[in-house]
Amino acid sequence: MVERIDGRVVAQLINQATKQRVEHLAQQGRTPGLAVLIVGENPASERYVRMKERQAQRLGIHSELYRFSATTTEAAIIKQINQLNENQKINAILVQAPLPGELRFDRIIATIAPRKDVDGFHPVNVGKLFLNLPGNYPVACTPLGIMTLLNHYRIPLAGKQVVVIGRSAIVGKPLLALLLNANASVSILHQQTINLRTYTKNADVVIVATGHSGTVTTADFKQGACVVDVGQNLDQDQHLIGDVAYDDELSQVGFLTPVPGGVGPMTIAMLMQQTVAMCEWEE
Ligand code: GUN
């Protein structure tokens, strides 16, 4: 029988703990502060940003939203980031991806002070993660959420074969580092990989983060595999669907993260947790 990994329940547990940490900081007269920058009017980004604002408010985190038109310049965004780098009320800065037009996400991210880079996308933080350096530094929220789910459900990783499909800077690459740091043997598959199934059929854990529905199906997995679906796609009826197309014969799969209710709720929980942690690190 397949076991469903419940991201809503785990996210709620994390949010409760985060709220307590906020209350503890409040006793010392401190409030974590998150600044979110959004550029243009991408509907998915609008939805994420609304959820982030609402969750920050629920947990007692100070949040500020900065809106830019799709025709803004890199210089205008960077100017705002420089001000936020100096702003004592803000300890976490996030630029919502993707950016419209010719705006270069990497250039912009590199101007965030690494200690305020709550997404863990700055090259300094990415480097620390890949080197598995000790100490406190932010790590990309969706990969961190996936690791937290796997840990909560006691899915073993050390010595296991793990396949990640997708090589984005937001999910695939930081996941590679986290899984490697957890002693898994990791394969990253991507658009030019020939015959995905030869990899997925041998994998104990398959993490799918391509942004394309139907990337893999039930028959691609080994008996008892754990399948993590990072996809957030809309079908013809505007319903949220993942990257994995399961058929009715689910007995093959050991664990799966549903969409919605799997990885999705974890990303925001991790963002809030990390915003609070970064405030604590400042002591
Ligand atoms: N767009 C999709 N996921 C993310 C994320 O985790 N952080 C940011 N900044 N943008 C995203």
Structural overview:
This protein has 283 residues and is of the alpha/beta class. It has two domains: 30-114, Rossmann fold, CATH 3.40.50; 141-264, NAD(P)-binding Rossmann-like Domain (Rossmann fold), CATH 3.40.50.720. It has helices at residues 7-27, 43-59, 74-86, 105-109, 123-131, 141-152, 172-181, 196-200, 263-281; strands at 3-4, 33-39, 62-68, 92-95, 161-165, 185-189, 205-208, 216-217, 225-229, 233-234, 240-241, 244-245, 253-256. The strands form four sheets. Strands 1-13-9-7-5-6 form a six-stranded parallel sheet. Strands 3-2-4 form a three-stranded parallel sheet, sandwiched between helices. Strand 5 (161-165), helix 7 (172-181) and strand 6 (185-189) form a beta-alpha-beta unit. It is globular. The structure holds guanine (GUN).
Question: Short summary of the structure?
Answer:
The chain has 283 residues and is of the alpha/beta class. The protein has helices at 7-27, 43-59, 74-86, 105-109, 123-131, 141-152, 172-181, 196-200, 263-281, and strands at residues 3-4, 33-39, 62-68, 92-95, 161-165, 185-189, 205-208, 216-217, 225-229, 233-234, 240-241, 244-245, 253-256.
**Cofactors and ligands present?**
guanine
Might you state the CATH topology name of the largest domain? Rossmann fold
Low-confidence stretches: none
The pLDDT mean sits at: 97
What distance separates the N and C termini?
48 Å
Q: Mind telling me which CATH architecture of the largest domain this is? A: 3-Layer(aba) Sandwich
Structural class: alpha/beta
Radius of gyration: 19 Å
Structural domain tally: 2
Strand order of the largest sheet: 1-13-9-7-5-6
CATH homology superfamily name of the largest domain = NAD(P)-binding Rossmann-like Domain
